[in-house]
Design goal:
By secondary structure, the chain is an alpha+beta fold. It has one domain. The protein has seven helices and eight strands. Helix 2 runs parallel beside helix 4 and helix 4 crosses helix 5. The radius of gyration is 16 Å and the shape is globular.
């Protein structure tokens, strides 16, 4: 998390934590309407998994599905934030790039290498980058809701930069991003831009609970994201009450 300079989200070894808690999770969240956006939808570059991530696992979720869901999540986020900015009389500039990477050092943020098993928003280059092998593995084991939450959280960091929001502690920034991700998903479901299958909210709640900080993590520490209870509460506060619950002013 040190590479984000206050903006990077480590997701706390999400694959290991969530797989241990949620081996059966397979949420049905996805863009509404016939078909899903292809790579490059919404003005961002689509994720392009490669290398060892190209093999299908268990015959359940393919790399093509991963690409469609990643592009769909980005496209819905761009439409959502464009609409919110327009409502306040502002013009929204989508995040410049979405970059998949496979090796430590392949992508850097302000001269600091992004590592394995991670996703980050980089304000220096205005991009979101993620370890594609890690993300594909999580997608297969957890489900597509992971991608919508992951990209929604990182996209929220880009919105925070655009709004000029500053924080004294990392945990304030991260919990707000969780709330904003919840608002993006919840409002998009209400607007029928996304659909949820029965049980998805309970499964997403369990997933959020699994990515909380370790119990001994001080709340004031650089890189703190919040306890499982705090992260879950923040996300669902935004999901249920929209951006009014996220203290953006």
């Amino acid at each position: 998390m040190s590479a984000r300079s206050g903006y990077r989200s480590r997701m706390l070894a999400l694959v290991g934590l969530l797989v241990a808690a949620l081996t059966a999770l397979a949420c049905g969240i996805g863009p509404a309407g016939p078909g899903r956006p292809g790579a490059g939808g919404g003005g961002s570059t689509g994720a392009a998994p490669g290398g060892s991530a190209s093999d299908q696992a268990d015959g359940t979720m393919t790399v093509e599905e991963f690409k469609r869901d990643t592009s769909g999540a980005v496209a819905v986020a761009e439409r959502y934030w464009t609409g919110r900015f327009q409502e306040s009389g502002q013009r929204f500039q989508p995040i410049r790039r979405i970059i998949p990477y496979e090796r430590t050092g392949e992508v850097d943020c302000g001269g600091e290498a992004l590592g394995r098993n991670n996703a980050a928003y980089c304000p220096a280059g205005d991009f979101i980058a993620y370890d594609v092998n890690w993300a594909v593995g999580a997608f297969r084991k957890i489900g597509d809701a992971f991608l919508f939450y992951l990209l929604g959280h990182e996209y929220a960091h880009g919105v925070q930069v655009r709004l000029g929001i500053r924080y004294q502690f990392t945990i304030q920034q991260e919990l707000q991003a969780d709330c904003m991700a919840g608002a993006y998903i919840g409002d998009s479901v209400k607007d029928r831009a996304l659909t949820l299958a029965d049980g998805d909210l309970d499964e997403l709640r369990q997933g959020l609970f699994a990515v909380g900080d370790a119990p001994d993590q001080p709340w004031f520490a650089e890189g703190a994201h919040g306890s499982a209870e705090q992260r879950t509460e923040s996300f669902f506060r935004g999901y249920e009450r929209s951006l009014d619950a996220c203290d953006l002013t």
